[in-house]
Amino acid sequence: MYKTFSMELAGRTLSVDIGRVAKQANGAAFMHYGDTTILSTATASDKPREGIDFFPLSVEYEEKMYAVGKIPGGFNKREGKASEHAILTSRVIDRPMRPLFPKDYRNDVTLNNLVMSVDPECNPEVVAMLGSSIATCISDIPFDGPCAATQIGMIDGELIVNPTLAQKDVSDLQLTVASTREKVIMIEAGAKEIPEAKMIEAIFKAHEVNQEIIKFIDTIVAECGKAKHSYESCAVPEELFEAIKKIVPPEEMEVAVFTDDKQTREENIRQITEKLEAEFADNEDWLAILGEAIYQYQKKTVRKMILKDHKRPDGRAITEIRPLAAEVDIIPRVHGSAMFTRGQTQICNVCTLAPLSEAQRLDGLDETEVTKRYMHHYNFPSYSVGETKPSRGPGRREIGHGALAERALVPVLPSEEEFPYAIRTVSETFESNGSTSQASICASSMSLMAAGVPIKSPVAGISCGLVTGDTDDDYIVLTDIQGLEDFFGDMDFKVAGTHKGITAIQMDIKIHGLTRPIIEEAIARTREARFYIMDEVMAKAIAEPRKEVGQYAPKIVQIRINPDKIGDVVGQKGKTINAIIDETGVKIDITDDGAVSVCGTDMAMIQKAIDLIKIIVTDFEAGQILTGKVVSIKEFGAFIEFAPGKEGMVHISKIAKERINHVEDVLTLGDIVKVVCLGKDKMGRMSFSIKDVKEN
């Protein structure tokens, strides 16, 4: 027998079957929300993984195409590697749950979410997040849960809990908030310039809903939860810390980390490490964990300096931003480029424009759009942090950073009607020492403007950090955290936006949640910082979008035709449109609603193609003058092609003012002539006259 638990969530029933399937997993929850069905499981290894100094948590979100009644495309009719959407969903599940596992736990843990059915009314991502929490809470895996997650949308200023797919399409906000019993533990948001106060309201509306879900999870755990298993702690022994402090006093460690140059700090730590390795050469057990001990020692030193002494490792004030620099057009021949530098973080962004036909095609479970017109890609090579490592393509972190920057910029992009281009921006990380994702947003914003993309407003991003003490009101929020403050601090709170409002948020923390005052202060700090970045740095490099696209960018002109005339423009087997392309060298895209985009580098040829298309779709009336080419000569007259696939006939009596016996006496194949339209003849063909053309 299995047990089923249910609750009403945003007007729909959420139910969970425990003990029905996957009984050999440490914990399993068979989730149902409407017709959305997901199997969430949690499994752990019996022993810790040897030789690691981190918690090996793996979160998977498996999209099965049968969930929406599809067979995977391509030659291999199996699901392949995880989609970008699946990777981003896995990250959103990972981020709130990871801090709730014991810090000294080194057993491998896998949280798997198998998406088996998708109801457009019930978002599978939320179900997977709740399923992972429930499966882990009822398992014997040590976990300080539960946590819960809720999505919030906003339509016409009204906040909506767990919006449907249709509501998401018109929502001004896509917010996901995860919470523990008392605090917010994760925030992920994309927004159309939402004011800070409204964003805070939305965050805490989600937090309230999460408390109801947590009560529901508590009832499940009370009936079905297993006792948590004991585990082998990998914490650094206190006696090792004491021995290290005798050799390297706290004052010496402060000097080692107190510098704004990452390489200098790393060299200082390397020297300390060598000294300690020599001292502990005879103690293999301590040598094996010395690296982790030094890391923890640095962490305690930095946190104490910030929290108690109000001193940052690079000497900055708590609200001070590192030195900033911005420039555009640093890469020749590309369509747009910009570089943004903040301390030892440096991003070069390159913008590429293309016809809409080159937009990215999407193949997911809940994608309402089949293409994505704007793509932001982020690369993080090893040289950016002074390391050597072969490039294996983007990992989950790179995909996540690219998606965050993309989400931040989408709200300010012009519509397809205003700017009929597919747009790709690529952020190359030249140097990294904290918050490259936010530097990517700044660089991308400038790169788009340099490329002539008429964005509605510049966008800037900045990150705040946090160091907490023993009580909720003992904390310091840091503006513009560098890498060290991120590694040793408690929070990375990234906010991007315009002068008008927020366009994206991503919050990661390493503690069990944030109070409302911390969130409000972080949002206020990032607002102040991004205004400074936009006004004092970015605007001096490029204040507004250029009026035209660059010399090397394709020129695209869009016109609209009657959808009923699309077949005339395309012609039989594409003959007509291919003839226009061959004659002008342009690229032509036509959508089902009659939008025609003509793309090329030569404006004269673009205009020629447009003129030909207009001729093809125009119903000509008597008296209109056209220019055409003689393509066929018969005894009774000549056929004139005035556009690809469009011909009309000039009767022999209409060729010359004087009588002629043979058409060839006046016309030759290939001649370019002016004709006047006489209407249609008895056979429905266009009838022309050459002799009746009135000379100007």
TrEMBL record:
The keyword Lyase does not apply. Its cofactor is Mg(2+). Its EC number is 2.7.7.8. It catalyses: RNA(n+1) + phosphate = RNA(n) + a ribonucleoside 5'-diphosphate. Keywords: Cytoplasm, Magnesium, Metal-binding, Nucleotidyltransferase, RNA-binding, Transferase. Its main location: cytoplasm. Involved in mRNA degradation. Catalyzes the phosphorolysis of single-stranded polyribonucleotides processively in the 3'- to 5'-direction. This is Polyribonucleotide nucleotidyltransferase. The gene is pnp.
